[in-house]
Amino acid sequence: MAERREERFAGESRWTRWLVAGPPAAFLLLFFAVPALIVVLASFREPGEFGGLEPWLEAGHLRLTLDAYRFLASDWIYAEIFARSLLVAGLCTMLCVVLAYPLAWVIARSPRRRRDLMILLVVLPFASNLLVRVYAWIILLGPAGLLYTPFAVVAGLVYVHLPFMVLPLYANLEMHDPALLEAARNLGAGPWTRFRRVTFPLSLPGIYAGSALVFIPILGMFAIPELLGGTGDILVGNLIKEAFLDNRDWPLGAALSIGLTVAVLALAALAARGARRRAPATGALP
Amino acid sequence: MPLLEIRDVSRRFDGSAAVDRVSLSIEAGEFFTLLGPSGCGKTTLLRMVAGFDRPDSGTLLLDGAPLEDVPPEKRPIRMVFQSYALFPHMTVEGNVAFPLEMERRPRAEIRSRVAQALELVHLADRPGHYPDQLSGGQKQRVALARALVGRPRVLLLDEPLAALDAKLREQMQVELIRLQREVGVTFVFVTHSQDEALALSHRIAVMNAGRVEQVDRPERLYAAPANRFVAGFVGKTNLIEVEVQRAGPAQLALRAAGMGEFIAAPVAGLEPGERGAFALRPELVRVTPHPESVELHNRFPGRVREAIYLGDVTLYTVETEGGLALEAMLPNATPGRAALLHPGDAVVVAWRHDAGVYLRG
Amino acid sequence: MSARAGPALWAAALAAYGFLYLPLAVVVIFSFNDSALNAGWVGFTTSWYAKLLRDGDMLRAAGNSLAIATASAAISTVLGAMAGIAMQRWRMPWLPALVMTPVAMPEILLGVSLLLFFRQVLDLTLGFFSILAAHVTFSIGFVALIVRVRVAGLDPALLEAARDLGATPWKAFGRVMLPLIAPALVAGLLLAFTLSIDDFVITFFVAGVGVKTLPLQIYSMIKVAVTPEVNAVSTLLMALNLGVVLAALRAAPDLLRRL
Fold first, then answer.
1. Measuring CA to CA, which of B75, B152, B228, C81 is 20 to 30 A from C164?
2. Contacting residues for A142 by C-beta, under 8 A, at least 6 apart
3. pTM for the whole thing?
4. Is A23 near chain C, with CB under 8 Å?
5. Which residues on chain A are in Cβ contact (under 8 Å) with B47?
6. Cα–Cα distances in angstroms (integers) from residue B248 to residues A261, B254, B266, B299, in the given order
């Protein structure tokens, strides 16, 4: 396929591209970019008396403050909750990898025609509502007395995000050249060694990609910890929800959101670097 | 007035010039070919004529009128794409009718003109088929019919035969010549195959690195290349480094290291001592083990180094006593010819005094 | 491929599938259970479904969800298609970032920012419009991705050929590009519809008090008590999702592989 050079048809005005890209861009600027900036600004404002925010400009002078951030930094509990959220997300991610790997491997090794069906079957549960999936676990765990335990929360989180780990991992495994394993075998490597030294390293980009799709959303979850964990303050997501909807302390909620955003951006950058650095070594078939 | 004029056109991509101050005049009714290696700018130039890209400088004129701001759909110029670009969601008939629909012709006229166009390309029996049901050669014809049905002033062809196998290519080449002569439309043809260019064209422009090296009729291009590049690109040639000994109106004497002095066709304005190249086509070099049978002035002894049998001809590499290697091509089926020569045979190479051409620089 | 998976791996894979489907199967089965407790099987009944149909709140929520989903699907498909085409045709590095980030980031952040925006800046009462705007915001990215992949798979020469043969840019789009990307548009439309119907987190923040969507309704019901009515509505929702996914696949069968 020809390289993409910046060609312009004769008689084509510069404005065509704006005509096409303009409306969606305008919509997203208004409903995504601007609100994002609002959040940043809000974290520096004072909470209003009946919820909401105090005006940031009053009688010509700025009413901005670092109170929200100071509050977060002052109490260890917030750092603790952040740390716990990272730990829980990490644990769930690893569990997802462990559960997803055999499934992704089997699908990648299946005959071509069956693969699409098998992938479809993995994706279908994801197509149902989040609450429905959580509810299913409530029913299962309730009678077993496992509801409102850490196990329930982890189980729920893993369950909901498993397909997101299976898909990228499968996409990666499918590209592995089977000749590599045959060569390893030919050179004397047993099954575990073949996995450890050949398959696993080659699958790392897929694991990174899947981890990003699992770890990052988990950080922001609140429904699962709330419904399956019983208490409402386990993870960062719960805190944010509380701040906005229960306590009506919007600057605090905004500050927490900024914190979460920073964590998300850092993780995304890490995952992107991990996936990119290893990319050339997949041994992919041409 | 030429039909299509390209004046001093340049186009740069990422800092380097894909097309560098190219000027060409193309006459109505001509089969004009842009010939050159990949990356020489021929396709870029073609796309600018079609309107898919704009020159950075220079101008394009059709019938004397500038094409700059005329969008592709308003130009009476049609293109046959390398990938054919047949609309997969329309039938053969639908594809060929498309340009006429764009002109808003009445239904009846469209139907008859489409039928005519398909007749012209010998594809009248498959109007209802879809492109993915056709072979490469058939897709080619549909693309041609579609481009010609609107009676354009110029037809551009971007390496249309590149994807076809050898036999089919030959057939289509004959078809193209027939079509062009029959319809009389000006063809601008792009290819990297010099065989194709020589076979099909009225005139050829040889391009290299964005510039036009030479524009001429095929036979002139072959016999009188303007420089080393053209000599080497169009057909096989020997390129011998030479120094001018004597330059007169009737004769030119050149000396080649490893060979000696020989006579060539005169070239105006040369000074003794000047260095250049001598282009000598292999088929003009005679090789024989019997020196006494040769009556030419330009003759040198040597030994056969290599003999490559090609069926209808044999390509010999002969090394002269001085160490210069010359290629000679001899037909194989001449009655009375002595047995084929073998490596190691002592021979004499010779050529006429008016064979070959001196190239400056 | 020669390296076939051994029986141990197959067992693990089947276990994973079981893990994925068992909970959902339980929900469906118990929706027909003639017992108010999701404990043991008593007998077959469709009374819970009947109860659903008499539940005014539920019906209103369903109506809201369908209305919002339809509007969101329509708007996001148009805007998303424009974005997808622009991303593929022209080099505008900021566009993919703007379009795809709402898809990649945690939903709670999106919900929170829109809540602030609507209440603080626009002083808008939260309700139908705020939910619709929110849904379109994250749906655009999905549709754009699908459309972009499809456009990338088209031979660029097709559009050039159309222009060369006399079609104006509009005609070239309508007669050539549109028919060829239609499957992606249908798949995108259905996907946007599903995303809207199913959305919980973002809707939770921007819905306010007045308007309830189906997921929000389910949420309140779960918090109050676990009744088989929830099983029934969950089953119906799952059936709807299944139908939409299958329809999308029929419209664009190769999309799954391309992604």
1. C81
2. C38, C226
3. 0.80
4. yes
5. 7
6. 86, 12, 7, 21
Q: How confident is the model at residue A56, as a pLDDT?
A: 65
- Please state which CATH number belongs to domain A76-282: 1.10.3720.10
Fold for the domain defined by B236-360: OB fold (Dihydrolipoamide Acetyltransferase, E2P) (2.40.50)
Give domain status of residue C243, yes or no: yes
**Where does chain A hold its CATH 1.10.3720.10 domain(s)?**
76-282
Q: What is this model's ipTM?
A: 0.86
Instruction: Look at domain B4-224 and name its CATH class.
Output: alpha beta
**Residues of chain B in Cβ contact (below 8 Å) with chain C:** 50-52, 71-74, 77-79, 81-83, 85, 87-89, 98-99, 102-103, 146-147, 150
CB contact under 8 A, B85 and C161: yes
Give tens-digit pLDDT for B290-308: 888 778 888 899 999 998 8
| A51 near C CB under 8 A | no
The three state secondary structure string of chain B is CCCEEEEEEEEEECCEEEEEEEEEEECCCCEEEEECCCCCCHHHHHHHHHCCCCCCEEEEEECCEECCCCCHHHCCEEEECCCCCCCCCCCHHHHHHHHHHHCCCCHHHHHHHHHHHHHHCCCCCCCCCCHHHCCHHHHHHHHHHHHHCCCCCEEEEECCCCCCCHHHHHHHHHHHHHHHHHHCCEEEEEECCHHHHHHHCCEEEEEECCEEEEEECHHHHHHCCCCHHHHHHCCCCEEEEEEEEEECCCCEEEEECCCEEEEECCCCCCCCCCEEEEEECHHHCEEECCHHHCCCCEEEEEEEEEEEECCCEEEEEEEECCCCEEEEEEECCCCCCCCCCCCCCEEEEEECCCCCEEEEC
CB contact under 8 A, A237 and C108: yes
- Residues of chain A whose beta carbon is less than 8 angstroms from a beta carbon of chain B are 5, 7-12
